[in-house]
Amino acid sequence: MKLDKELEKIKDEVLACRKCSLGQERRRNGFYPVIGEGNHQAKIVFCGEAPGLQESKTSRPFCGAAGRILDELLESAGIKREDVYISNLLKDRPPDNRDPLPEEIEACSPYIERQLEIIKPKVICPLGRYSMKFLMEKFGIGARIEPISKIHGQVFEINTSFGPAKLIPFYHPAVAIYHFSMKETLKQDFQILKKFK
Ligand code: URA
Q1: 62 lines ligand 1 (CB under 6 A)
Q2: Ordered structural domains, the chain, with CATH
Q3: Best mutation site among 45, 91, 172 for ligand 1, i.e. most ligand atoms within 8 A of its Cβ?
């Protein structure tokens, strides 16, 4: 199928990518890039920040501790993981899970942009403030950016190259690893997705 081929091509490009130092770091460690996984015709696409250690060892997004929380959140909204598409802003792990650098976002973000253009979701869900900022700016609502503590769970109407869509920022699931009460906030926010599945 055409979609599968186009997404596969992104994988080949990331494997050969030399635009920032994270690819070099990945090759040195014998890790994998994490391109994304799920339904190539998903209505809902989640965009995390960057792979962690577990993800880089397996090439699967959100398969470690944050992933277990994401799975719980999806289940609480009655959404099957295989029905959505899950990816990240950066395809390679920053050393020691540090925050993404502006130049890494600039180098890597064309891949998530293309993934969105191929999948054409109705709902785009940034997970965490880095993806939130990047995607809100990309879709022309940069002026509405506020701290994620203010706008998590809000539905923003956006215009994309593939038509109207919604952008709903969520806290990054990893916040609930150490702050248990955040899991309840995230669960409440995820309930909005029931409308769109
Ligand atoms: N955190 C992310 O942002 N993405 C992953 O894939 C895993 C953890």
Answers
A1: yes
A2: 2-196 (3.40.470.10)
A3: 172
